[in-house]
Design a protein that fits this description.
The chain has 436 residues and is of the alpha/beta class. The protein is built from 15 helices and 22 strands. Helix 9 packs antiparallel against helix 10.
Length: 436
């Protein structure tokens, strides 16, 4: 059963036991419903039923609701809510799953952390500074594919068969310390705080679980929580101010997920290919730019692709030429700086990995001599030829041309990881855009 099943309907819920009654009412209280004086299970016992009307919970005997033609449902527990709390959970979502952020604060927190992990909008714009939440408000859902996001409202996704996961904050992302007094202006903040503390093993002073009730309805927007040694208490903001205690706002607990400051990518080719200067640089908006001294300018991601296409057209028949490889290497470095996919024609980051290979260190790696010889030969061929790379579950496949013959040379990815001192993920990420 879900709360949405009950709202706006002539329906009653039958709770056969006190345990089921407590579970039913606790969830409604945490969701903002007025349950005051509703717990009357001891009066009607196993005949107790509850109904919802305009945000309040009412109770009565089973026979009453039956006589009033209510649709009566047996309560056996709440349907498990779908929630996203970690990046690992996010990465396991399917192609028909989306994440809903019901508040602007949640949307900002959700996008800020993804930005710090290299995610971008499908348009390649930065996630920071534009949440696109205002358009759909509490119905805003984000669809994540690879490291790109798009958005729409929950109705659109529901109509198209998507499953909606709720985002209520990143797990253990609150900067909480013992001795703090935390002011929660909204019940959503209180629930978020108490769920975080519950995961850390905290309980109410009475010893009961923090998730049974938020106790926010007593002082409401004046509610403060005091964090002790494994225990939590609550009182009003005025009470703590009168006692001279330092109070921390809930919003100040959020750990910012800002990407580390880095220098914008910039590189200059001097006196190259008939041009006095060719400048590659990333502007303050995170957009790529290529400027020739002759006045030719390529601005933005689309124009970067136009530039690459023009290099292909002009030098496509001679991919070993210094001009072609230099142009494309610079474009590739810029792509990597912008968290864009590496070029399929020349994967700079993978060649840089290969360039760090040291045969003498490999001798101490524990690989059998035959395996070491195989690795050395594979790397030497890869560096000596203009090769393309792909991978399957077990091998990295190098394709290259010798004397007009197309050849391939495979190596086990595990062996290559040992030789280069990197993880499988680093190898796959550096060549996945040329995988076959």
């Amino acid at each position: 059963m879900k709360i949405s099943d009950l709202e706006g309907k002539k329906m009653a819920v039958h709770c056969k036991t006190k345990e089921l009654s407590d579970k039913f009412l606790n969830k409604l209280e945490l969701s903002g419903f007025d349950t005051l004086l509703s717990d009357r299970w001891n009066i009607y016992g196993k005949n107790t039923c509850y109904s919802i009307y305009k945000g309040k919970v009412y109770y009565g005997r089973y026979s009453y609701y039956e006589s009033e033609d209510y649709e009566i449902h047996e309560f056996e527990g709440w349907e498990e809510e779908l929630r996203i709390k970690t990046i690992e959970q996010l990465q396991k979502l399917g192609k028909k799953d989306v994440i809903r952020c019901k508040t602007l604060d949640l949307a900002t927190e959700f996008l800020a952390k993804l930005h710090s992990k290299g995610y971008r909008w499908a348009s390649h714009d930065s996630l920071v500074g534009e949440s696109n939440w205002d358009k759909y408000g509490s119905q805003t859902c984000y669809f994540v594919e690879g490291k790109q996001l798009c958005y729409s409202d929950d109705l659109y996704f529901e109509r198209n068969g998507f499953k909606i996961y709720e985002f209520e904050g990143w797990e253990d992302e609150l900067n909480i310390k013992k001795g703090m007094i935390i002011h929660c202006e909204t019940e959503q903040q209180a629930i978020r705080l108490l769920e975080d503390l519950d995961r850390r093993g905290y309980k109410w002073l009475s010893g009961s679980s923090l998730t049974l009730h938020a106790s926010w309805g007593i002082h409401k927007e004046e509610t403060c929580y005091s964090i002790g040694s494994g225990m939590v208490q609550y009182a009003s903001l005025g009470f703590y101010k009168r006692s001279g205690s330092e109070v921390t706002k809930f919003s100040d607990l959020l750990i910012p997920h800002c990407i580390e400051e880095r220098k914008l990518y910039s590189s200059v080719l001097s006196n190259f290919n008939g041009h006095r200067v060719v400048e590659f640089y990333e502007d303050s908006e995170g957009q790529p730019n290529i400027v020739f001294s002759s006045g030719c300018v390529y601005e933005g991601y689309k124009r970067l692709k136009d530039f690459e296409a023009n290099v292909e057209i002009k030098y496509g028949s001679n991919k070993n030429s210094l001009v072609y490889r230099t142009y494309m290497l610079e474009a590739d470095k810029m792509r990597l700086a912008l968290n864009l996919p590496a070029l399929g024609t020349y994967v700079a980051i993978f060649r840089e990995l290969l360039g760090k290979f040291i045969p003498s260190e490999l001798a101490e790696s524990g690989l059998a001599e035959t395996a070491r010889n195989h690795v050395c030969l594979w790397v030497r061929v890869a560096l000596d030829h203009s090769s393309s790379f792909s991978y399957d579950s077990d091998n990295v496949i190098m394709s290259y041309e010798v004397a007009d013959q197309n050849l391939s040379f495979n190596i086990g990815v595990d062996q290559l990881c040992v030789a280069l001192g990197v993880t499988k993920e680093e190898i796959y990420n550096s060549i996945k855009y040329t995988s076959s």
